[in-house]
Amino acid sequence: MRFALLVSIYGATCMTATALGQWSRDPAANNPICVDSSNQSYPVMTTDGDGGAILVWTDYRNGSTSDIYAQRISAAGVPLWTPKGVPVCTAADYQTNPTVVSDGAGGAIIT
Questions:
Q1: Which domain holds residue 5?
Q2: Which of 67, 73, 87, 100 has the greatest number of CB atoms lying within 10 Å of its CB?
Q3: DSSP codes, 4-27
Q4: Alpha-carbon distance 46 to 42, whole Å?
């Protein structure tokens, strides 16, 4: 099954009348994180320290082996990096099941 990696935020803080930005108010309409048509799986995320998040996942866009990609979204729900995410590790063979923690300086440590 092919699908785009999506994130859906369900919280009163994102659903208030004063909320501005790109966040979907409809739980059936998610915010796209990666718009590549290949399979993305094992998503994990951490704070970017500025109200947004850094999301990391396993991605099969380069064939039968998997790589690790990431995307940063702003507090307003706007993707800040390329629409398909940025490569973190595209070495030969499989990269899978990433983990991520904030580095405390607006970035992340990804393993």
A1: 1-111
A2: 73
A3: --EE----TTTSSTT--SS--S-T
A4: 14
